[in-house]
Each structure stands twice: as structure tokens, then as C-alpha cells.
């Protein structure tokens, strides 16, 4: 008989964490070996409990789930991580993937979908909610790009960099962190980009940037 998948549940909200752990414990294919409420505690529990899969929230005190995933997989690369969060932002999704997560679901997903994701990741596969999978596929699809002409030549180097990160799905706050700028400075750059591209709004600028091959 195949043994259950050993799971560590990480979430800073005690009601959700314990309720979710209890739900998983009622399923034959899963064995909950521990819970954690912070990123630091997740690393400690993972080292002690040796789970097959960690179900990881993103927003947590002392260390967020993205950084916890990155550090966890540096120490235990054989562990699968399924991010379970409220965030649908592209920046968060792709940061989680870059950190090494192999599953990404939104809170509110049906229990059977969560269990499928856990068992799939435990088996070495990847698992995403249907909506997220479509967005990821769209993001990774080839886009036309000129090999000889630099897109948007009116932009400064910094504005081009900001547009590239916008096209990658990052928020102003995430861009500010990535480029070591203030959010006010990032807003000014975004405004300048919209003016120079004569884009009606941020969404139009992102579409045009992705069509030009940015955001990869």
C-alpha cells in the first residue's frame, strides 16, 4: 500500500491553519505531520518533520512565504511546495515560481483540487488552478520581438526597466523593492511611460510591452 503524502501546513491565521490541517487529516492520501505560523517556523518544522510537501501561505510575519520557499528548497530540494494564498497578482505568482514552488492555488479552492495538487507535487509534477494555469501559459507563450530594433526608443533606460517589470506583472511596490527605488519614484516613472507610449492606462502599456517581447 502506498504511504500517505506527508504534509506541513504553513499559515499565519490560526483558524484557517488548524481547520485546513484538520480537513487534510481526514483524507486517506494525506498525513499532516505539522503546522507552522511563520516562515521561520516553517523552516524549523520542515527540518524536524521532513514533509514531502509544504502547503505555504505568502503573507506571513518575520519571513514571507516566497522567501521561506526559497530557503526551504535550498536546504531540502526534494520537498515540494504548494503555495495556497489569496493573491492573484502576477508578480506574486511568478515570484513563487522563481522561488521553486511547483504548485499555486487560491484559497477557496475545492478540497479535491488541493489534494490533487499535493499528490501531484509529491510525485514530482506541477499543479496550478485552472485560471492561473491559463495565465501562466499566456505569459510563457512566444511573443514577437525584433532582433535589431529596440522597442520604445523614446524611453530612458530606467523607464524601459520599469516597463519590463510592469509587463512581468509586478506591482509598483514590488518594482520599488526590485529596483531599490521609492514608490513615489516608481509612480513617476510609470506616469512617464504611459505618456511616452500614449497609452490610455497601465493595462494598455503592459499589453504593448508584452507584444514587444518585454516581461519575460
From TrEMBL:
GO terms for biological process: phosphorelay signal transduction system; regulation of DNA-templated transcription. Pfam families: GerE (PF00196), Response_reg (PF00072). Residues 148-213 form the HTH luxR-type domain. Keywords: DNA-binding, Phosphoprotein, Transcription, Transcription regulation. Residues 6-122 form the Response regulatory domain. GO terms for molecular function: DNA binding. The modification 4-aspartylphosphate is found at residue 57. PANTHER family: TRANSCRIPTIONAL REGULATORY PROTEIN NARL-RELATED, TWO-COMPONENT RESPONSE REGULATOR. This is DNA-binding response regulator.
